[in-house]
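User: Reviewer 2 asked us to show a designed sequence for the structure in our supplementary figure. I'm pasting the structure tokens here. Could you produce the per-position amino acids so we can include them in the response letter?
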């Protein structure tokens, strides 16, 4: 064990009872998680999360950090919702609103395909012009043109909107999209599940029970999905803990979540900055670490570099995160709100950042099959790919 973990386990440490639970593999409680958030001992919290991450990874994979060669597609930014923290959707500003044709979607996807991407991550606004038939056409066209590229698309909010628009069940909506080409779902739209926070932020879309039901329905239909939490919108630590515990409960039921992604709000183009507290790097590291400790039934925790920035993402690897997301190519949603991170990172850059943080870069596919493992460093300072491995599911 690390020196930091030994110190956390020391009987004089106020967090030693929680550290002992972690080492024994016992599930930590709501009260435990709140105490961790209230503690200033970030070193001990990080040591517990790092231990939990390595144990979850399994023998031989303790230092693995994953990434994927992917791209983001956003077919429309027109949205019927008016969430106060969103700078992306344009329900009123028609000069900036757009909706792509199927041909335009294929044109954009072709740019990623030419670079060898493995995944298309596709989300958009709630646009009545983009109904279920539209997305069926888009996915069928993508599947026909790029059969080798995995389609991860449609947040639970979008599924909910399409089901209501068509007057059909969530299950039927999912079945039709799966038939068209949907292969997994991202975790967006969860925001914070607490209704008081959502009311203050004018979040009318897909409340907690509905969001969780949609992901559970997707899991039962064989889809793997992700989960998120958005901070910096006026939530309390209790709100965050309760949000994560609802995800843990759903995972106990249906088991289809692959990864949890802690997100932070950016405020450009919004009117909420004066009434909320912007998360600091310290806060974000706590979110990463405590989610790793609470979500004992999730295999992966993501340090989403597009939001955290590359440097903080590197630090997050020592606080329980084992994924950096991907090359992305062009991300619109967070950049519309003011993030200054690059619009894309080359595979080599991602590998170098993981390796320079002391971890082993591992290229994966969407559902965490390993594509190749890289050595940490070379004489040139860049990671050196090992012999490609056969696709093997991670533990």
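Assistant: Here is a per-position design you can include in the supplement:
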């Amino acid at each position: 064990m690390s020196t930091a973990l030994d110190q956390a386990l020391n009987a004089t440490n106020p967090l030693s009872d929680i550290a002992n639970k972690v080492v024994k593999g016992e599930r930590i409680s709501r009260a435990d998680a709140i105490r961790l958030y209230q503690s200033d001992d970030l070193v001990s919290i990080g040591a517990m999360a790092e231990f939990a991450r390595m144990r979850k990874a399994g023998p031989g994979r303790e230092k693995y950090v994953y990434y994927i060669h992917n791209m983001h597609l956003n077919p429309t930014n027109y949205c019927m919702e008016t969430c106060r923290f969103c700078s992306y959707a344009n329900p009123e500003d028609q000069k900036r609103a757009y909706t792509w044709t199927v041909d335009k979607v294929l044109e954009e996807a072709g740019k990623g395909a030419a670079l060898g991407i493995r995944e298309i991550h596709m989300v958009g606004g709630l646009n009545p012009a983009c109904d279920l038939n539209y997305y069926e056409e888009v996915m069928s066209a993508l599947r026909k043109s790029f059969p080798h590229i995995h389609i991860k698309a449609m947040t639970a909010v979008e599924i909910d909107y399409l089901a209501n628009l068509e007057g059909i069940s969530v299950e039927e909506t999912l079945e039709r999209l799966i038939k068209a080409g949907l292969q997994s779902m991202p975790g967006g739209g969860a925001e914070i599940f607490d209704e008081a926070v959502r009311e203050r932020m004018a979040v009318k879309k897909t409340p907690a029970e509905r969001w969780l039901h949609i992901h559970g329905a997707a899991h039962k239909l064989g889809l793997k999905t992700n989960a998120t939490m958005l901070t910096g919108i006026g939530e309390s630590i209790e709100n965050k803990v309760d949000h994560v515990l609802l995800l843990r409960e759903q995972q106990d039921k249906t088991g289809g979540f692959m990864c949890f992604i802690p997100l932070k709000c950016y405020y450009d183009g919004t009117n909420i900055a004066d009434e909320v507290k912007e998360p600091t790097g310290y806060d974000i590291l706590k979110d990463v670490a405590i989610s790793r400790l609470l979500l004992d039934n999730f295999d992966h925790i993501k340090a989403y570099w597009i939001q955290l920035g590359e440097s903080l993402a590197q630090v997050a690897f020592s606080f329980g995160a084992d994924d950096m997301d991907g090359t992305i190519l062009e991300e619109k949603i967070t950049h519309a709100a003011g993030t200054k991170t690059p619009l894309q990172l080359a595979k080599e850059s991602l590998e170098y950042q993981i390796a320079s943080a002391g971890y082993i870069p591992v290229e994966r596919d969407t559902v965490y099959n390993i594509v190749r493992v890289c050595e940490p460093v070379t004489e040139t300072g860049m990671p050196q790919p090992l012999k490609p491995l056969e696709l093997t599911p991670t533990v």
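For the response letter, you might also mention the following. The longest strand covers residues 224-231. The mean pLDDT is 88.
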